[in-house]
Specification:
With 161 residues, the chain is mainly alpha-helical. 58% of the residues lie in helices and 8% in strands. It starts with a helix and ends in a 6-residue tail after the last helix.
Amino acid sequence: MATHRQNAEAMVSDVHKKIKAAFEAFDYEANNTVDVREIGTIICSLGCFPSQADLHAFIAQVEDQTGCIHLEKFLPVMTKVLLEKRFPPIPEDKLLQAFETLDKEKKGYLEPEELTKYMMQEGEVFTQEEMDEMLTAHTDQKDNVVYYKGIIDQLTLDSDL
């Protein structure tokens, strides 16, 4: 029984370390707070992919009404999310199928303008700022296209805790 408890405590400790590291990457003033607009990115960096509705509900639990999120409020809520394996990523085969549906010519990539059109008009729409960030991160600089296999690989990295 003690070994099981020690294993659970070690797992929680590891989860806390991962959460703190992800949080601190966006704590630009080193004061244990981040801008509320960074929370989605932080959550995704921890291998969780909430819907917009889930993200808003999560933020409502941890926001302090000033537009900031404090680590002491974020840590327990995010720990519970990770331990309960909430907000799982979409399976790789489903992501590939979605991109291939958009890539009618089966080229293995999408033009940035084409991807922007889809992402800002369909489903849970992206903002222009989110699109700019995504395109900056994923557009091949030499070919000026978005190779979607690279995005899928990033989104489906094994995030075992």
